[in-house]
């Protein structure tokens, strides 16, 4: 397969069925151009690279990489349990062209990510979905870039950041027409200290989110629903904030 689609690193089947779509902070979520080879349960892909780094002047996005992101994945399971094991190897690289004094300053580093994701059918159509992600450069693959890939130290070198995320979601059918999804998710980053990186205090340290919804399926393809979202964010220096939201949705698939 060649083209733009969901990343091979991302198990779409394990994405919780919340109305906020990519609302859970600890899920992988990424679409990009790639070349993918599939043989039975195994997949190998070369995917579009991009590097996003924290610097003392803000966030910088670079496309100086010479190597694509390399993803390997295994899909397994039986009748009631399907799962995937995936890994990504990334070359992070930047080249500064902002002014003549800095032009040519560059560095590169290797980073990786691991993901275990799946779905367990418990009874009837009820099911439990899970996703556990860990790596030194999850970056833009995780939670719509919840964290950047790393940061530039005082010498202009790339330092990568370990990141961990977990999402659990349970879908329960009360009746054939009524169902609910409950999702809990957390994502955290092992940020540098202020001594290592002067702007470390402003980096995101942890996100948490909880979704609960009720969906009504009155006819084939039609869904009406409401969802409550409770979420929080904490920075490395201890500042934090909460978000509460009510979302109403109507969906018709044809």
Features of this protein?
12-stranded antiparallel β-sheet; 4-stranded mixed β-sheet; globular; 254 residues; mainly beta
Strand and helix layout:
Layout: E1 2-6, E2 31-39, E3 42-47, E4 51-55, E5 58-62, E6 69-77, E7 81-95, E8 106-123, E9 126-135, E10 150-152, E11 158-160, E12 163-173, E13 178-189, E14 204-219, E15 222-235, E16 240-252
Parallel strand pairs: 4-10
Antiparallel strand pairs: 1-2, 2-3, 3-6, 4-5, 6-7, 7-8, 8-9, 9-12, 10-11, 12-13, 13-14, 14-15, 15-16
Structure commentary:
With 254 residues, the protein is mainly beta. Helix content is 0%, strand content 61%. It contains no helices and 16 strands. It has a twelve-stranded antiparallel β-sheet with strand order 1-2-3-6-7-8-9-12-13-14-15-16, with no helix packed on it.
* Largest sheet entry: 12 strands, antiparallel
Give the number of helices: 0
Based on helices, strands and strand pairing, what is the structural class? mainly beta
Q: Compute the number of strand runs.
A: 16
Portion of residues in beta strands equals over 45%
Task: State the separation between the terminal residues, measured CA to CA.
Answer: 26 Å
Give the SSE order as H and E letters.
EEEEEEEEEEEEEEEE
- Shape, principal axes of CA atoms: globular
Mean of residue pLDDT values: 93
What's this, in brief?
The chain is mostly beta strands and 254 residues long. It is built from no helices and 16 strands.
């Amino acid at each position: 397969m060649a083209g733009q689609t969901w990343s091979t690193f991302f198990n779409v089947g394990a994405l919780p069925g919340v109305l906020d779509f990519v609302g859970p902070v600890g899920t992988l979520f990424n679409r990009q151009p790639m070349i993918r080879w599939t043989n039975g349960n195994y997949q190998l892909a070369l995917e579009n690279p991009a590097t996003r780094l924290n610097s003392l002047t803000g966030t910088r996005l670079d496309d100086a990489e010479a190597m694509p992101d390399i993803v390997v994945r295994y899909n397994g399971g039986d009748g009631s349990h399907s799962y995937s094991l995936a890994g990504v190897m990334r070359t992070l690289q930047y080249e500064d062209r902002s002014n003549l004094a800095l032009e040519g300053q560059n560095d590169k580093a290797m980073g990786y990510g691991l993901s275990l994701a799946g779905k367990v059918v418990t009874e009837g159509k009820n099911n439990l979905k899970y996703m556990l992600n860990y790596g030194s450069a999850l970056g833009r693959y995780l939670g719509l870039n919840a964290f950047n890939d790393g940061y530039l130290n005082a010498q202009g070198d790339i330092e990568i950041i370990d990141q961990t995320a977990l999402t659990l979601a349970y879908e329960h059918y009360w009746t054939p027409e009524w169902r609910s999804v409950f999702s809990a998710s957390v994502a955290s980053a092992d940020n540098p200290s202020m001594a290592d990186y002067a702007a470390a205090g402003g980096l995101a340290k942890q996100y948490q989110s909880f979704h609960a919804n009720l969906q009504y399926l009155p006819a084939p393809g039609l869904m009406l629903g409401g969802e409550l979202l409770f979420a929080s964010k904490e920075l490395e220096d201890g500042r934090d904030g909460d978000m509460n939201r009510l979302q109403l949705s109507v969906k018709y698939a044809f």
